[in-house]
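hiii so um. not sure if this is the right channel but i have a protein structure encoded as tokens and i wanna go backwards to a sequence. like what aa goes where. can anyone help
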């Protein structure tokens, strides 16, 4: 079954490429399932969480995800509804997540922020929101679990406004919450969705009318321009588990969420209306199908009409890559993509040719910007239990570094590789995948270093001086860029002070 709508003459089919961001347990997986049900991508409740290998729309496929019931990679799910193709990029909600999460948010045009009505804005939600804000990604808010006991709606809206510095425009309003919950009022269409999910011509329950009147008077009306600029969030209340408020949410995505937006690039931003085919690799995933030991690069198409078999230039290397077998994703399932349009996410099977940050185009050289590496917060040494598996370990570390699960640093002095991650969970992912996918038994040991910084200088002599004076703390990343390994924050500040001509950076743009 194809999910691609028929192209319209002289125009690209409409696309909505979005992510769902939330703190753990806010209901993201359930909401994802309800959206996929609405789009016909799955046909029964529970398929997203199902553990059967053949489940079409399951987004959590890695073994550690199955064991712990959490998402640690980002998946892509494509579905169509009402002539619009929706590309839903699932992001990990666990507090320990990888750079893969950051980079996935660079590939979307909008986001849905899920908030637990009882807990409000939590740490992970705030962190993911800040990543969205860096790129002015428009956000629709879905306050979930209103059928349970929770905080007052006004308190939740004021918290969003205060903590996120966003204007809030309620689009729905709950008639009571928890034990007093009677339904949801669609403010725009003036209709009531009852607690059983049906829509009723009945007016808003009189017992809660004062609250609704106060909400409509006290908060600004929805402003589409302000929303698309990232200054205002429309707020929907509901219960994903009971399919309440989901229909208005998906309608809002179709009506208000932007289609493909211009992508930041050098020498100039990429216009999605340009006929030139341009895309960038934001994610690489190895071993999605362990039977075939495959490697798939996820490309966000930014402009042009891509057709299967096209030859695209890999900017940076100058190589031409023939894309013979591009795929669309339904989580673990794939379907050959004969064509794709701006906003689509396609997978390109390859054997290490493509890397995160690569730009592909059939036109003049252009480089997508804004896909950085982040300085790791945890550094560890990897020690093999079986020294004869050195080659397999190197292959595994290279693969996972390419995916963004870890970063790999090679010290100038000493043979033991140092790996860096931005969250503790990624270390568990590393060990699990070494064992399951690469048949390598290894342990992690403490590193004498606490953090790492990329170093560069316009003065070659100044950089050389740093490298000579601190050889024991110098390393190279997987691309050979020099890295200073600091023992702690005091050490980092001290060395920075002694080498003012050298830049110590916590991020490095991937080119």
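sure thing!! here u go:
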């Amino acid at each position: 079954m194809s999910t691609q709508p028929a192209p319209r003459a002289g125009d690209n089919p409409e696309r909505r490429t979005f992510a769902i961001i939330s703190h753990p347990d806010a209901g993201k997986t359930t909401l994802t399932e309800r959206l996929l049900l609405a789009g016909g991508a799955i046909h029964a409740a529970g398929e997203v969480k199902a553990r059967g290998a053949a489940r079409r729309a399951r987004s959590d496929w890695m073994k550690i995800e199955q064991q712990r019931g959490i998402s640690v990679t980002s998946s892509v799910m494509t579905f169509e509804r009402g002539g619009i193709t929706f590309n839903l990029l699932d992001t990990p909600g666990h507090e320990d997540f990888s750079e893969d999460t950051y980079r996935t948010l660079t590939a979307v045009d909008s986001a849905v922020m899920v908030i637990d009505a009882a807990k409000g804005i939590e740490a992970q939600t705030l962190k993911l929101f800040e990543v969205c804000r860096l790129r002015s990604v428009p956000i629709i808010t879905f306050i979930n679990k209103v059928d349970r006991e929770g905080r007052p709606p006004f308190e939740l809206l004021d918290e969003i406004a205060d903590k996120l510095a966003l204007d809030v425009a309620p689009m729905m309003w709950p008639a009571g919450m928890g034990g007093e919950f009677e339904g949801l009022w669609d403010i725009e269409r003036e209709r009531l969705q009852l607690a059983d999910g049906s829509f009723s011509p009945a007016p808003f329950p009189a017992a809660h009318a004062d609250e609704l009147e106060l909400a409509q008077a006290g908060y600004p009306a929805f402003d589409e321009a302000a929303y698309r600029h990232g200054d205002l969030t429309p707020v929907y209340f509901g219960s994903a588990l009971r399919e309440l408020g989901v229909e208005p949410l998906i309608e809002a995505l179709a009506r208000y969420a932007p289609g493909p937006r211009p992508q930041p690039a050098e020498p100039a931003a990429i216009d999605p209306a340009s006929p030139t085919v341009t895309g960038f690799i934001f994610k690489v995933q190895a071993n999605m199908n362990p039977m075939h030991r495959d490697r798939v690069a996820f490309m966000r198409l930014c402009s042009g009409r891509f057709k299967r078999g096209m030859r695209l230039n890999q900017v940076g290397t100058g190589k031409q890559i023939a894309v013979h077998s591009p795929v669309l994703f339904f989580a673990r399932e794939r379907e050959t993509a004969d064509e794709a349009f701006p906003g689509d996410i396609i997978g390109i099977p390859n054997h290490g040719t493509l890397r995160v940050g690569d730009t592909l185009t059939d036109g003049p050289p252009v480089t997508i910007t804004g896909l950085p590496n982040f300085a790791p917060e945890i550094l560890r040494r990897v020690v093999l239990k079986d020294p004869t598996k050195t080659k397999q370990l190197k292959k595994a570390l290279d693969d996972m570094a390419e995916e963004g699960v870890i970063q790999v640093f090679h010290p100038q002095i000493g043979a033991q590789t140092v790996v860096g991650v931005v969250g503790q969970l990624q270390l568990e992912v590393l060990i699990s995948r070494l064992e399951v996918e690469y048949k390598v038994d290894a342990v992690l040991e403490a590193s004498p270093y606490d953090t790492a910084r990329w170093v560069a200088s316009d003065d070659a002599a100044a950089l050389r001086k740093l490298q000579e004076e601190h050889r024991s703390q110098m390393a190279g990343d997987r691309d050979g860029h020099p890295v200073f390994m600091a023992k702690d924050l005091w050490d980092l500040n001290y060395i920075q002070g002694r080498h003012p001509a050298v830049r110590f950076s916590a991020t490095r743009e991937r080119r």
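oh and The domain at 15-75+91-255 is CATH 3.40.50.300 (Rossmann fold).
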